[in-house]
Each structure stands twice: as structure tokens, then as C-alpha cells.
Design a protein that fits this description.
The chain has 277 residues and is mainly alpha-helical. The chain has one domain. Helices cover 76% and strands 0% of the residues. The protein contains eleven helices and no strands. Helix 2 crosses helix 6, helix 7 runs antiparallel to helix 8 and helix 9 packs antiparallel against helix 10. The longest helix is centred in the middle third of the chain and has 32 residues. The mean pLDDT is 85.
């Protein structure tokens, strides 16, 4: 992978990981559409993508630094009693929401890996992602509670998040749909989705970094991967800032434009790829 492709991938990752349009789906479909000669099933591609995920997770962490500091203080019992209680409650909800991802990932990651390099399937799943987002708006819970949620809400959001193991289904979008179904507003849904995404993305990166460092065929990618990770982090931070303002200001229909985009991009990509263009 050359420098230009690496930076373009970084920009793509930093934006699409947060926007509910599936970063993995785009990482599979876009190179195929543009005829980039990249071996997506090669030993270096997945670790490179995970380095971009580490950059994205860093951008997310920095944007929500105050929340993570509150969680840290709560876990250690620092600060006022009310702050400690709130920090521990949020930490508990994040853990509960992350557990389904860990369990399902452990059970089904290997069987699903063969889908990661299949552009036609990814294009179809992008269309499915559009349907999921529209369904989330249609079946939205009636008793809106802002950003407040309980542990049951967190578990259901975590279960929805597991849909993202299919390349083309957005992790952030699926988590938001789960939150909307439980009556959380778009802003609260987006914030919780981004918070649970930070450890999930970082954990995936940590698991793959040893491969990137120690496998001899990947050494040439390490420098450009680090630079691309920084670019992904900057783009992720900017994307998060934009999306939090957007979801706050468009609470009645916020996911619909992303659904229409996924439907159009997925369908168009499927036709072009099937035609061999």
C-alpha cells in the first residue's frame, strides 16, 4: 500500500467509523470501486485497518476526555460522593454494553472473517444498514428520556452493536438504533454509542498491533500506518464534534440522510461491481 492510499484510507476510516455508514463496508467497497490494487485478504491489510482504529479511538477519547476522567474518578472513588456514584454507574453501563460484543466476537469472529474482503456482500450489507437506520427511526421509543438510560438499556444497545460484525452494518448506527428503540434521544444515543465504541475500537487495535510490529512482512507498513493513524484520529475528532451538534439539532429525523446515502451508495456499488466496471 502506497502513501496516498494509506492517507485516503485514514480519512475514510476517521469519518465513516463515527458516521453511521459503516467504516468496514466502505473499506471493502471503495478500493474495489476505484480499482486500487490492494490485497485486502493479505496479512498486512487487517492490522493496518486496526492501526487506523487506534487513531480513531484516540480521537474519540480526547473529545470525551471529561467523561472518561469522571469514569476514572468514579472507579477509584475519588471526588464527591455524587460524582463517584455517577462515574461508577456510567462505567457499569459501558461494561454491560460491551460484554455482548466480546462474547459474540469470540464466538463468530473467525466464521465471519471471510466476509471482510467481499465487496459485493459489503455493498448488500450497506443497503441492509440503510434499512436498519430507517427502521430505527420508525420504531423509535415513544417515551423519550433524553440521554438517561438504565442497565437494561445498556445491554440492549450492546446487543444491537453486535450487528456490526457484518461488513456494511455500522457499529455506531446499530448502537444508536438500539438506544432510539429504548426511548433515548439522538444526542444521548450518539454519545453513548461513541463512548462504548472507544474501548471496543481500542481493544481491537491492541489485539492486532503485535502482528503489525513482529511479522516481518509488515515492517514496511509500520511507519505509514502510524502516520495514517494520526490522520484518522484528527478526522475522528472533527467528525465527532460535527455529529454531536448535528444530532442535537435534528432529533426528529437525524438518521434518515445517512440511510438514504447507504441505500444509494450500496445499490450503486453493487451494480457497478457486478458489471465489472
Amino acid at each position: 500500500m502506497d502513501f496516498v492510499h494509506a492517507i485516503l484510507f485514514a480519512i475514510l476510516q476517521g469519518a465513516t467509523e463515527l458516521f453511521p455508514v459503516s467504516s468496514l463496508g466502505h473499506a471493502v467497497v471503495v478500493p474495489a470501486l476505484l480499482h486500487w490494487h490492494i490485497d485486502q485478504k493479505g496479512p498486512g491489510f487487517l492490522p493496518f485497518l486496526v492501526m487506523l482504529h487506534l487513531g480513531t479511538a484516540t480521537g474519540l477519547f480526547l473529545y470525551f476526555a471529561k467523561d472518561w476522567i469522571a469514569i476514572f474518578y468514579g472507579a477509584l472513588g475519588l471526588g464527591y460522593q455524587e460524582q463517584t456514584r455517577a462515574g461508577r454507574a456510567l462505567l457499569g453501563k459501558l461494561i454491560i454494553a460491551t460484554l455482548p460484543l466480546v462474547i459474540v466476537g469470540g464466538l463468530f469472529k473467525k466464521p465471519l472473517e471471510h466476509l471482510f474482503g467481499a465487496p459485493l456482500l459489503a455493498a448488500l450489507f450497506l443497503i441492509a444498514n440503510a434499512g436498519l437506520l430507517l427502521l430505527g427511526e420508525r420504531l423509535r421509543g415513544k417515551s423519550l428520556r433524553g440521554g438517561e438510560m438504565d442497565y437494561k438499556d445498556a445491554l440492549i444497545i450492546g446487543l444491537f452493536q453486535c450487528l456490526a460484525f457484518l461488513p456494511g452494518i455500522s457499529r455506531s448506527g446499530a448502537a444508536m438504533v438500539g438506544a432510539l428503540r429504548r426511548g433515548i434521544d439522538h444526542e444521548g444515543a450518539a454519545k453513548f454509542s461513541f463512548l462504548i465504541g472507544t474501548p471496543a475500537i481500542a481493544a481491537a487495535g491492541v489485539a492486532e498491533v503485535p502482528r503489525l510490529v513482529h511479522e516481518h512482512q509488515l515492517h514496511a507498513l509500520f511507519g505509514v500506518s502510524m502516520l495514517a493513524a494520526v490522520v484518522a484520529g484528527v478526522v475522528a475528532y472533527a467528525s465527532t464534534a460535527f455529529l454531536m451538534r448535528y444530532f442535537k439539532g435534528h432529533d426528529t429525523w437525524a438518521l434518515k440522510p445517512f440511510a438514504w446515502y447507504c441505500a444509494a451508495f450500496g445499490a450503486g456499488s453493487f451494480v457497478l461491481l457486478l458489471a465489472g466496471l
